[in-house]
Amino acid sequence: AVRVEHCERVHVIIAAKRVCIANCRECVFFLGVNQRPLFVGDNHKLQVAPYNTYYSQLEEHLTEVGIVSTINRWDEALSISVIDPHDSLSHPAGVSDAQSESATCLDPDQLTNFLIPNWFENESTGSTKDNPFPLPDAYMTSQQRNVNAISLNEDDKL
User: Fold this and answer.
1) Among residues 118, 130, 148, which one has the least CA distance to residue 53?
2) How would you classify the pairing of strands 38-40 and 78-80?
3) Which residue has the higher pLDDT, 157 or 19?
């Protein structure tokens, strides 16, 4: 399990059986999770998206820790908005009636792949050649549209 607390304005990529996100603001979470993501505390302007990266040994590592890449519940978040009015990090001004927000899904057109360089290509023994977590149709369609647009731009330059 992964627990993320008190983050602001970051993008976090997580492959785990489960994740708990608490008291975060303006973050994007790219998730490959087997259980529903849990959002607790005072969260604001959070977005979730499907897992967006891979490296050569990812599938082996997922298998070692029992993560099943065909099960990804990234978009089935469960929000528990229990806000501690005494938490100075959540409420720097001491506001006790603030409402926590649910995470929204990242627009498919905003999803990009995070590339991990393979610095030790000669030593790599992994079999992973692509993201093992399947993308939902809307995200796959958007990525294909972007690839086609880049290809057209490259053809125009020739």
Assistant:
1) 130
2) parallel
3) 19
> What is the DSSP-derived secondary structure letter of residue 33?
E
Give the number of other CB atoms < 10 A from CB of residue 136: 16
**Beta-carbon contacts of residue 153 (< 8 Å; ≥ 6 apart):** none
Q: What is the pLDDT of residue 21?
A: 98
CB 19 within 8 A of CB 39: no
What percentage of residues in the chain have a pLDDT greater than 90?
70
Token duo for residue 150: 């880049």
Euclidean distance between CA atoms 16 and 31, whole angstroms: 8
Start-to-end C-alpha separation, the chain: 49
Assigned token pair, 133 = 């977590």
Answer yes or no: are the C-beta atoms of 132 and 62 closer than 8 Å. yes
Residue 62: the pLDDT is: 98
**Which two tokens mark 19?**
């994740």
